[in-house]
């Protein structure tokens, strides 16, 4: 058997995994979890912040591929009844039951772990797993349960292609940046100016794009500041102009008025001493903060 030769040629780090079938190492029965043939219900969910592709495995849990904006993809096989200790596992791709006789391929050596995530695969093995499913392979996860049974969890490629295509389109529409890159933005200004630089406009476009994508953002606070050049009343007016310039630009980009909170502080709260040009430049700023 091709898979037996493949398994025995590698070092898999757990004695029971050398055996094929897996239950030849164990006394007692083997247990397999899989969707009934024809009932495989792959589901895609997503927006510009997250894409997910999942399959519920009856009596076991949920298998899902997932990727967040500006983050690498991963795969999780969650188990409803969580294990209490780490269990070594192997993941491989095998021909589907309706195409017997082909080779099987090792995808990863991993483990089933305590906690809600169970079995976790980072980007590279997750991408291999996804590719094998897309090519029509059945993917299997094998480990020895805490009770000594040989456990196999199977994911079928049946009904996968259409949902996979939707998932790929979702991935292509993810934001190229995440919340951390827009949570707080600092825009700098020239002396006596409230004109937005090209770099400031680019950052504000990212802020607005994120606000449109994430309904959890409840408030966008805009605060204007100046250096200590000029009188207090003049500096207050300059900081007000800067804050309103930023707010108006965000409004023009589609950020709702109800989300915006605009204030200005003049020379208060400097981030650097005003006794150098560098310090003054750092203090001529508007700070934009997003709150969820």
TrEMBL record:
It holds the Pfam family MotY_N. InterPro entries: Bact_OuterMem_StrucFunc, MotY_N, OMP_bac, OmpA-like, OmpA-like_sf. One of its GO terms (cellular component) is cell outer membrane. Residues 176-292 form the OmpA-like domain. It is found in: Cell outer membrane. This is Sodium-type flagellar protein. Keywords: Cell outer membrane, Cell projection, Cilium, Flagellum, Membrane. Gene3D superfamilies: 2.60.40.2540, OmpA-like domain (3.30.1330.60). The gene is yiaD_1. Its main location: membrane.
């Amino acid at each position: 058997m091709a898979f037996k030769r493949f398994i025995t040629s590698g070092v898999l780090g757990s004695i029971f995994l050398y055996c094929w079938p897996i239950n030849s190492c164990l006394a007692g029965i083997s247990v397999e979890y899989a969707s009934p043939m024809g009932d495989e219900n792959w589901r895609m969910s997503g927006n510009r912040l997250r894409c997910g592709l999942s399959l519920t495995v009856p009596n076991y849990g949920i298998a899902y591929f997932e990727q967040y904006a500006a983050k690498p993809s991963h795969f999780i096989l969650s188990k409803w009844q969580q294990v209490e200790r780490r269990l070594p596992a192997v993941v491989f791709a095998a021909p589907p039951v309706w195409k017997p006789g082909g080779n099987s391929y090792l995808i990863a050596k991993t483990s089933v772990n305590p906690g809600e995530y169970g079995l976790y695969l980072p980007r590279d093995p997750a991408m291999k797993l996804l590719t094998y499913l897309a090519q029509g392979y059945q993917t299997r996860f094998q480990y020895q349960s805490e009770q000594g049974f040989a456990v196999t969890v199977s994911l079928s490629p049946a009904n996968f292609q259409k949902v996979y295509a939707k998932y790929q389109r979702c991935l292509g529409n993810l934001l190229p940046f995440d919340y951390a890159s827009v949570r707080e933005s600092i825009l700098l200004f020239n002396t006596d100016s409230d004109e937005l630089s090209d770099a400031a406009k680019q950052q504000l476009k990212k802020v607005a794009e994120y606000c449109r994508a994430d309904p959890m953002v409840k408030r966008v606070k805009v605060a204007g500041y100046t250096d200590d050049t000029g009188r207090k009343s003049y500096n207050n007016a300059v900081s007000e102009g800067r804050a309103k310039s930023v707010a108006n630009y965000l409004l023009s980009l589609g950020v709702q008025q109800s989300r915006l909170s605009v204030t200005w502080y003049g020379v208060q709260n400097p981030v650097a001493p005003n006794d150098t040009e560098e310090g003054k430049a750092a203090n001529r700023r508007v700070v934009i903060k997003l709150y969820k």
